[in-house]
């Protein structure tokens, strides 16, 4: 669909206002929010990611594209989340220590909230102990960690260890995800669940509390 290609192109160019306007237009035209997200915004981010890797674009361009992505997600938010009103419990969420990527984490938050969870978002660059302390302070049964760098993935293992050391490992489920994370990695660090995307993360969380 031409408008989805336009969204992808404007995102790559970092045109935040254009991305917002086109996302609104696509909604008004009756295109499903999930399609706008996947075939417009995320398709654009994928291209930026590939160009970044190939040194064809650099951090400033990636940053403006990321801001345009966030602007688009803001428009889609009310249409993406299902908006369950009953509270399903609280989830501690954050991007692990040393890692500043938050677009995926924010999508995961949106989907958790859409399924009726209250999300305590610790933000980015979150130390292992901070995840655990927040879970204890808020009596949370789920800790969700996002990692986007191969260099920060090992911090997930430290979250699992910190939960053991503080004696809460059997009381919490530790969910993990992010582009470099795999099921094999999840098994190797002893986390409870790896999910590939934000929607399946929210479905898994529902399974855990069922
Ligand atoms: Co960065 N970056 N970045 N970056 N960046 C990557 C991750 C990289 C793959 C790019 C590349 O080389 N192709 C590469 C990592 C390589 C590696 O580790 N092997 C990389 C690098 C190297 C870096 C820097 C080191 C660059 C530098 O400074 N030289 C630096 C590190 C900074 C730091 O964190 N300390 C850096 C910086 C940045 C920006 C700040 C410019 C910006 C982030 C802006 C922001 O987040 N606010 C940025 C971006 C945007 C990217 C790419 C291009 C896009 C990431 C993204 O947002 N994708 C990325 C390339 C790529 O991933 N292809 C790249 C869209 C988002 C929706 O996807 O986060 O994967 P994602 O989330 C998905 C799933 O993974 C999943 O759900 C989402 C979809 O539904 N998911 C979960 C995520 N978390 C989950 C948790 C769950 C379950 C599912 O359960 C709890």
Number of strands: 5
Largest sheet: 5 strands, parallel
Order of helices and strands: HHHHEHEHEHEHEH
- What oligomeric assembly is this protein in? single chain
The domain tally reads 2
Provide the residue-averaged pLDDT: 95
What do we call the CATH homologous superfamily of the largest domain? Cobalamin-binding domain
Principal-axis shape equals globular
Question: N- to C-terminal separation?
Answer: 39 Å
Write down the CATH topology of the largest domain. Answer: Rossmann fold
Which architecture name of the largest domain does CATH use? 3-Layer(aba) Sandwich
Structural classification: alpha/beta
Assign a percent range to the helix content.
Answer: 55-70%
What is the rounded Rg? 17 Å
User: CATH class of the largest domain, please?
Assistant: Alpha Beta
Tally the helices: 9
Low-confidence stretches: none
Order of neighbouring strands in the sheet with most strands: 2-1-3-4-5
Bound molecules: CO-5-methoxybenzimidazolylcobamide
Share of residues in strands? 5-15%
